[in-house]
Amino acid sequence: SAAEKGGYDYFMLKEIAEQPKAVADTLLGRIDGAGSLTLDEVRISAAELREMDKVVIVACGTAFHAGLIAKYAIEHWTRIPCEVELASEFRYRDPILDQQTLVIAISQSGETMDTLMALRHAREQGAKVLAICNTNGSTIPRESDAVLYTHAGPEVAVASTKAFLTQLVACYLVALYLGQVRGTKWADEIRDVIRDLSQISGAVERVLETMEPVRELARSLAHKNTVLFLGRHVGYPVALEGALKLKELAYMHAEGFAAGELKHGPIALIEEDLPVVVVVPSPRGRSVLHDKIVSNIQEIRARGARTIVIAEEGDEAVVPYADHVVRIPATPTLLQPLVATVPLQVFACELATARGNEVDQPRNLAKSVTVE
Ligand code: G6P
């Protein structure tokens, strides 16, 4: 009913709008007054966490994209090697797991069969499993050694939005906590990021306030057949998520590519007026990445692409090559997905509506896939 949707036409719109709160709620009570993380609920002792020599993340769909982003954070802040794998592929390839492997299973519903089977397999091999889950008391957390709940609240729309942002927050918390417990050389950076994370909900709010041009752009592209998405570093999984949303909702051909791979194939796809969404890393921090992606935008523009550029406020270098610029607030490099994903959700939702699709219940899809 309209009341359930809080005045929005679709649950998806309501859930997109709830993201600042979902993000804030997922941080609540997990950062102490001194700016350290207190994840006591993760019932794997600090001593055990110090022993871990590998992290393996398993998940499906949108949760898998959260896992891909987590890998960058975990390896950077903890120096522990981290693999990310689709849960449906994981156990069939005889993965190497033991007591020193921390397996992280990410699932909104906690009922996805592929993810459940992957975690069962991991535990049989002696690995410890930490679930990141949005549904209290669901099967995946019940069968795990520990759980860190995301506090997105119930997500009804089939395409995941607020659950994704909170999965990212939970992944950052785990990565930072591992770094904190293991006392890495990044201690100062970790403290700064914890501070930035506690302010990120306001940044998500600001993105939401500026989405009208994105909706307008989406409507103008409703007749297109294909949209490509490019990103690099953590922007690459964001590109994958943007493409997934468009497939799920708009039933359009959409692909996400690592921008550095452009020259190895995808650039052959570029033709006149093809919409290409590019997620641009911050010009501060790892500025090499920024410069490389600006040349990518230049390359595809020269071949006729219609460039839709998601870039940080104040990043003027992209302007000469962008047909459309979508501004996002400045964040530390690793946290950018929390703000960069939001315009892509809005874009897919509006495009789907413009094409007359049922946004909350896309054809052929289920909210939770409880069969293998
Ligand atoms: C289905 C849903 C996706 C979701 C995936 C994983 O495919 O349609 O939105 O990302 O399952 O679900 P989970 O509940 O495990 O996060």
Automatic annotation (TrEMBL):
Gene Ontology BP term (one): fructose 6-phosphate metabolic process
Transport recorded as keyword: no
Subcellular location: Cytoplasm
Active site (catalytic residues): K367
UniProtKB keywords: Aminotransferase, Cytoplasm, Glutamine amidotransferase, Repeat, Transferase
Class in the EC hierarchy, top level: transferase
Catalytic activity: D-fructose 6-phosphate + L-glutamine = D-glucosamine 6-phosphate + L-glutamate
Molecular function via GO: carbohydrate derivative binding; glutamine-fructose-6-phosphate transaminase (isomerizing) activity
One GO CC term on file: cytosol
Subcellular location, principal: cytoplasm
EC number of the protein: 2.6.1.16
Domain SIS residues, every copy: 45-184, 217-362
Subunit structure: Homodimer.
Role of this protein: Catalyzes the first step in hexosamine metabolism, converting fructose-6P into glucosamine-6P using glutamine as a nitrogen source.
Protein name: Glutamine--fructose-6-phosphate aminotransferase [isomerizing]
Organism: Streptomyces griseicoloratus
Gene name for this UniProt entry: glmS
Portion of the parent chain present: 244 to 615 of 615
